[in-house]
Amino acid sequence: MTTTSTHQRQHPPSSTATDPPCPLSPLHNLPIPPLTQLPPHLRYRPNPSTGQTVVLGIEGSANKVGVGVLSYDPSTQTYRTLSNPRKTYIPPSGCGFLPKETAWHHQHHVVALVRCALNEAYPGCDRPEENISAVAFTLGPGMGGPLRSCAVAARTLSLMWNVPLISVNHCIAHIEMGRVATAASDPVVLYVSGGNTQVIAYSDGRYRIFGETIDIAVGNCLDRFARAVGLSNDPSPGYNIELEARKHGVAGVGPLKFVEWPYVVKGMDRKCNDNGGNDGDDDARDNNGIEAREHFTVADLCYSLQETIFAMLVEITERTMAHCGQNSVLIVGGVGCNLRLQHMMADMVRDRGGTLCAMDHRYCIDNGAMIAQAGIFGLQYGSEDMRIKMEDTRCTQRFRTDQVEVVWRPRTRGSHA
Predict the structure, then answer these.
(1) What tens digit of pLDDT does each residue of 4-15 get?
(2) Distance from C-alpha of 23 to C-alpha of 19, rounded to nearest angstrom
(3) How far is the C-alpha of 59 from the C-alpha of 145, rounded, in Å?
(4) Cβ distance 196 to 171 under 8 Å?
C-alpha cells in the first residue's frame, strides 16, 4: 500500500502556497485543446508575456471564505497554487454558524483576501490583476447568504477586469483539487464535510454518487455533538473531537471506554441519527438508556463516535472499490484531514493492495485554490456549463455532484454507471 500526500517545502511564514508545481500528466486528463479549437465565445486570454493561464477562485459556501490564485504553465505542463489565504467565521461555543452572520463575515473579509492573494501571487507587481485570465466562484451547494456574498465579489471582479466568469460546483472542486495535489488519476472518492457525505467514482463523463448520507452529513453530526458536550468551536468542533479521541491509550489516560452507538449502513448509504427521529444532540445525553455524562467521559464519547462513524465510511468505500474495480481512494472535504479516518482507510486500502491519497487541512478544508483548480479546468476545456453569463450567476443551495459534465476527463469508464 502506498500513501500519496501533498508535498511540503520551506516557505516564509506568511506564505499560503506551500507546494511545488503539480504535473498534468499523472491525471490522465484529455489533452488541453488549443485556443483556436475553442468556439469564439469560450476563448480566454493567457498572459501574453509568459503564456500562463491564471485563475482567481473565490470560495464561501459555509463558514470559510477563501481566495486562491492558481496558474497553468504550458512550458512545463504543470499547475501551481500561487496563493491561498482564507478566513474562518468561528461562532461562540455552543452555537452553530448562521447564514446571516456568516454572510456578514465573508463580506467583511473578501476584499482584503483578494488583495492578499494577488499580492502574494505577484509580489512587487503594481497591477497583478492583469495576470488573471478568469475569475471562478462557488455556484453551490452551500448556504445561501454566504454563497451570494462571494458571488457578488466574483461578478464585480469579472466586470472590473474584463475576464470570463466561471461557475464551480463545490464538490467537484474538492475532487479536482485532491486529484491534482495527490496525482490521483481515477480514484474512488470519499467526500466528507460539514454539509456533504458521499462516496463517488467517475464514470462516463460524470462523477457518480455510489453512496451518501440519508440524514445529516458527518461533519454536521460531529459539530452538533461537540456543541452538546461543550467543546469549543475554535479552531473547529470536529478537530476538538479528534483531539479528545486521541487520548485513547495515551500515558496517564489509558484506554478509553467504548460506547456502543447505532451502526447503520443501508445498502450503500449511511445514517448518523438512528434514535427514532429525535435531535442528534440527544445522543450525547442518552444512548440506549444510559446517562452518558454520568458514566463516560467526553473523551470516551468522542472516541466512540469517531470509531463508529468512520467504520461506516470505510465499509461503504470498500464496497464501492469492489464494485468499480478500483484500487485507490482519495479522501476530500473538511473531515478528510482527520488522521484517525485516514489511518482506518489506510488499513482497508492496504489489505486490498491499493493506494490511499490523503491531504492535510490546506486543501481538505474549504479554500479558494480548489475553486480556481476546477475553474481552470472548465476554462481550458471549454465547458459550456461552467463558462457562465452574468445573468445566470444565481447561486443554488442544492447542486448535485453528478449534475456536472466533466469535460476534461475521457469518457471511458461506463461499465459501472
Answers:
(1) 554 433 344 468
(2) 12
(3) 13
(4) yes
